[in-house]
Amino acid sequence: MSALLEVKNITKIFPKVRANDGVNLTVEEGEIHAILGENGAGKSTLMNIIYGLYKPDSGELKLSGETLNLSGPHEAIEKGIGMVHQHFMLIPVLTVAENIVLGAEPGGIPYNKKKANELIREISKNYHLEIDPDAKVKDLSVGLQQRVEILKAFYRHAKLLILDEPTAMLTPQETEELFGIMRRLKEQGISIIFISHKLDEVKEISDKVTVMRRGKTVGTLNTKDTNEQELANLMVGREVVLRVEKSEYKPGDVVLSVKDLTVLDEQNIEKVKNVSFEIRSGEIFGLAGIDGNGQTELIEALMGLRQIKSGIIKYQNSDIEKLPTRERYKLGISYIPQDRQQEGLIMKFSVADNLILKEYKDIRYSKNGVIQYKKVFENASKKVEEYDIRPTDYTLLAGNLSGGNQQKIILAREVGSNPKLLIAVQPTRGMDVGAIEYIHKKLLELRDGGSAILLVSLELEEIMSLSDRIGVIHNGVIMDILDGKSATREKIGLLMAGSQIDAKEVEV
Amino acid sequence: MKEILLNPQLWSATLAMATPLALPALGGTFSERSGVVNIAMEGIMLIAAFFAVLFAHLTGSAWLGLLGAVIVGMIVAVIFAWAAVTLTADQVILGMAINIFASGFTAYLLNTIFGFSGTPTDTPMLPNIDIPIIKNIPFVGQILSGNSVIVYLMIILIFASDYFLFHTNLGLRIRAVGENPEAAETAGINVIKLRYLGVALSGLFSAIGGAYLSIGLLNSFSTDMSSGRGYIALAAMIFGKWTPFGSFGAALLFGFATALSMQLQNSALSKNIIMMLPYILTVLALVGVGGKSVSPAADGVPYTPKK
């Protein structure tokens, strides 16, 4: 084997951060090379440099021994570098064929649909990637959309394929399918860079793994000679606890009871259909499901952010479905929203102000409608210390803090008020291993203190390691509620994909 | 009422009134398909209307008047594109500013250059065209033949635009840029260039529409003579779901309302009520009566390339 891509001493500096600091990477022909690192470790910056979206400040890129000086993605594409971005670069209203050929259409002035479709059929046959060229991208599943992205790269004769967190949006079954595709491509001599922060996936699919930390490459290992613990330690830079330590499950009284809840979306389509479940104190109830299967609508209904069509929401034995959000907060319900920057915080407010967003009217913080800043700052300095929010200057704007510390502000506000019910939506989304460890610990502390927690997450690992019971939602219906201890990945995966019958068979 | 509807004048007036709406609506389709909301078309029409008269008067040729109007219109459009695309300014506020500027600018030029008597009465007009054979067909001939040359130009442009936008590679790229500029850029497409093209085309079409008002229908310029047609054109474009044929259909509908109000001037029905019709239709179009219009996904969102 010989080196296809060589990255030598690449440095890229953005205002304030050294995103890449002397990065080295060698990718051989026909290998799957994983790049492992926490968020903000510089993986995406490196990929954007290889793909020509960013210009490095110093260092050298070589492809098949030839030095690359890329002025933009079009040149990287020309040289045979293809990239599938984490957020697909697709245009939903256009067809599969139009998306694939865009920018490199066959023929002259008119769009040659016949020729385009023909070319795509040929490539999909060559690489065993079945697709209908005339389908609209918006009608395809996430897995198929990803396939369109991969085809886009091969239409442009890619020799090197960069997959940026390709499994983030997939079900376990779709992930297996993708891995199958990757193995076949490898046999055909394609090199693949696989970016991930999921240790198990890296271990399963890659030949080699390069670990990045704080803009630096800290080492390249043969996957078969390493283990998840070693990789995690390298990634974080210290010993990490991978297994969540959970105390015994001791459920108490029912805190939240949802019965026959139906919720509509903006287009008046039923997004939550006759959903019923209960959550008890001292329990974490995990809600698993693929994004967009009604989780958002369900949570918004529970929080009073969205009207319900029918059904009952009971909280500690009283109906709350008509109460406004503020009243629900006052009853002891807390909420960690999915999008911390849009819904959880006001980015242009200080950390201290963000910490009292829910309680500013409380007599603790305001007198006759005037905010008592002395009290606000007292609260802030206490919370900043308790929740290890960095930097500790609480007069900084929330927008100036890192994602992990922003989430800690929300955590301090929502968990710090000692809720009887906490609704946490993807509380660790986009966080690194260290921060995830911390947030999981806090959630478990809350559970052990007798609170009820509804945990919504797209990460199956998270749901499985934290939940006492797991509800799986598909297309607005709770397919089944499983016991947290005995539930398997495969079974949840099948339920997530909506196949109840198959799931039953797995059980047998 | 029956005799009004059977009067060919009503229908030729519909066509005449639809033209200055359909042209900017076509232009807007290009601009918005590329992702730029161009409400400056109103102002561009007005400026073009003035310069059409000015150049026609100075050169003695209506055709050179049209050419001058188109050049000035496209210059204004490119300035708009520079601020909106390159400097990523707020497109709506920018458009509004250009419209207000255009109103004052043309009024000032009118007074300074032509004085209080207004534009000269000997300003040449663009010709009307008779179509052989068709002109001899009763009723239909009176509607389809003998219209201003711009009316026929518009019809050609509609077909050409539809072909360009939906059947060529460049059209595909323009639509891609308006839907997801990031995706287009990663496919190696120059987003900025195509947005300039979209806006420039909207300037071109609006300018033809403006020239039609001043040297096609008339041979004079008066202050604020575009009277909101650039805005109605935006509504026609939305009503027409951002397609050339749809825009034309909507423009015909709005043109019909205007033509009807002119025909009804002497009837018992108040002219003012009919005059309100196009505007009521506009409101209905905007709130989604006649099928929900879905705009290009990145319409109005400035794009900053990575570096």
Walk me through what this model shows.
The complex is a heterodimer of chains A (508) and B (307). Chain A is an alpha/beta fold. Chain A has 3 domains: 3-236, P-loop containing nucleotide triphosphate hydrolases (Rossmann fold), CATH 3.40.50.300; 254-332 and 419-507, P-loop containing nucleotide triphosphate hydrolases (Rossmann fold), CATH 3.40.50.300; 351-417, no CATH class. Chain A has helices spanning 43-50, 73-78, 96-101, 113-126, 142-155, 172-187, 199-205, 228-236, 295-303, 325-330, 340-344, 351-355, 373-386, 403-415, 433-448, 460-466, 489-496, 500-507; strands spanning 3-14, 17-28, 32-37, 58-63, 66-68, 81-84, 160-164, 191-196, 208-213, 216-222, 254-264, 270-280, 283-288, 310-315, 318-319, 333-336, 366-367, 370-371, 421-425, 452-457, 469-474, 477-483. A 6-stranded mixed β-sheet of chain A has the order 6-7-8-3-9-10, with helices on both faces. A 6-stranded mixed β-sheet of chain A has the order 16-19-20-13-21-22, with helices on both faces. Chain A has a 4-stranded antiparallel β-sheet with strand order 2-1-4-5, with helices on one face. In chain A, helix 14 packs parallel to helix 15 (433-448) and helix 17 (489-496) runs antiparallel to helix 18 (500-507). Chain A is globular. With 307 residues, chain B is an all-alpha fold. Chain B has a single domain, classed as ABC transporter involved in vitamin B12 uptake, BtuC. Chain B has helices at 2-5, 8-33, 41-59, 62-86, 91-114, 140-144, 149-167, 169-179, 181-186, 191-217, 229-239, 244-263, 271-287; strands at 128-129, 147-148. A two-stranded antiparallel sheet of chain B has the order 1-2. In chain B, helix 3 (41-59) packs antiparallel against helix 4. The longest helix of chain B is centred in the middle third of the chain and has 27 residues, at 191-217. The radius of gyration of chain B is 19 Å and the shape is globular. The chains are: A alpha/beta (508), B mainly alpha (307).
Write the layout of secondary structure elements.
The complex is a heterodimer of chains A (508) and B (307).
Chain A: E1 3-14, E2 17-28, E3 32-37, H1 43-50, E4 58-63, E5 66-68, H2 73-78, E6 81-84, H3 96-101, H4 113-126, H5 142-155, E7 160-164, H6 172-187, E8 191-196, H7 199-205, E9 208-213, E10 216-222, H8 228-236, E11 254-264, E12 270-280, E13 283-288, H9 295-303, E14 310-315, E15 318-319, H10 325-330, E16 333-336, H11 340-344, H12 351-355, E17 366-367, E18 370-371, H13 373-386, H14 403-415, E19 421-425, H15 433-448, E20 452-457, H16 460-466, E21 469-474, E22 477-483, H17 489-496, H18 500-507
Parallel strand pairs in A: 3-8, 3-9, 6-7, 7-8, 13-20, 13-21, 16-19, 19-20
Antiparallel strand pairs in A: 1-2, 1-4, 4-5, 9-10, 11-12, 11-14, 14-15, 17-18, 21-22
Chain B: H1 2-5, H2 8-33, H3 41-59, H4 62-86, H5 91-114, E1 128-129, H6 140-144, E2 147-148, H7 149-167, H8 169-179, H9 181-186, H10 191-217, H11 229-239, H12 244-263, H13 271-287
Antiparallel strand pairs in B: 1-2
Helix pairs in contact in B: 2-7, 2-10, 2-11, 2-12, 3-4, 3-5, 3-10, 4-10, 7-8, 8-10, 11-12, 11-13, 12-13
